Amino acid sequence: STKGIASTPRVLIDMKSHHAILVPHIGVLVALVHASGGLALVQESVSTSASARDTVLCPSRKSFFERSIAIASSCISPNAANAKEPSSSVVKPFAPVQALLPATRLKVSIDAAHQLSSELASTSDKSVQYETLVKVDSVLSNPPKLFVAEKLQQRTSRPMAQITTGVSSVDKEQYQRNRADLSIPDRMAAMLNQADVERQWGMLQYAESKREQGNQMRASFNYYTSQLQFADSYSLTASKEEKKRMIRNDELPTLSAVITSDLDLRDLYRNQFLTAIEDAQAEVSYQLKQPRESVDVTDVVELINQAHTACTKWFGLIPAQDVQDALEIVMRE
Known about the structure:
- By secondary structure, this protein is mainly alpha-helical.
- It has one domain.
- It is built from 11 helices and 7 strands.
- The protein has helices spanning about 60-70, 95-120, 125-140, 160, 170-180, 185-215, 215-225, 240-250, 255-285, 300-315, 320-330, and strands at about 10-15, 20-25, 40-45, 45-50, 85, 230, 235.
- The strands form 3 sheets. A 3-stranded mixed β-sheet has the order 3-7-5, with no helix packed on it. Strands 1-2 form a two-stranded antiparallel ribbon. A two-stranded antiparallel sheet has the order 4-6.
- Helix 2 packs antiparallel against helix 10.
- The longest helix is centred in the C-terminal third of the chain and has 33 residues, at about 255-285.
- The radius of gyration is 22 Å and the shape is elongated.
- Residues about 1-90 and about 165-170 have low confidence and may be disordered.
């Protein structure tokens, strides 16, 4: 088991040089794809737990994740033995179905808003558009209770946030490999840097807990992500030539690199959703203050479509059967 792996520092990969860049961040995770589409990772067996954390995305990061990263799965050691041939059965990272219920309740609400936005786009009658906007406003302003029987997990408290946290055995092995060829002074410097990264991770966890307290929608996404389970191996879908080149040049992704990408993608979709839905709420409120004959629903429709698309992509990273099971439970409530 590799519980505690969430305390690993963030690692980004330069897609041209394949050099790993350490960035202090909370994170854990899963699948990396070569920009050319030659490398993909797919999950096989499960053993690793992840912890939720926040991702702050600038435009360049956003483009990087959407264009260069694709999901498929999980935690590994950086050697050829772990780079298995692709199997026909891909198992996505998963968490208990109960962990998906808060986000599923949110999805049902957003699906309803999206249906109303489709009605907005299908008519040019200003009076009808205004009445539909009132319904949209009701849905967006009165979201369902997302946490019913579920309880948010206790995060790091402020006094404890500065204390260096433990790391998983897998991460410790990775850190030890990274320091193996360093001189004694450099090893000491690397250990101090590692401790600082973990301290910053604790502070990020605390900051995320504060954001969750003020935003149940954000908390519903994180509630599932924090309970994800990941595999301990991956498969390459690259050509034989590309595989040989990567192995020969020691360019297979390291554990930390693989661990970062999946949660980054999930957080990207979460953040896109939260931004779009907040803007949609503001736009609907503004339009309802206008005279009926002056309402313009263009932006409302676009923003709700963006939110719905981001939500759909986020759920697309979850096993379909789990999504169906969670939906059935929520619809019976």
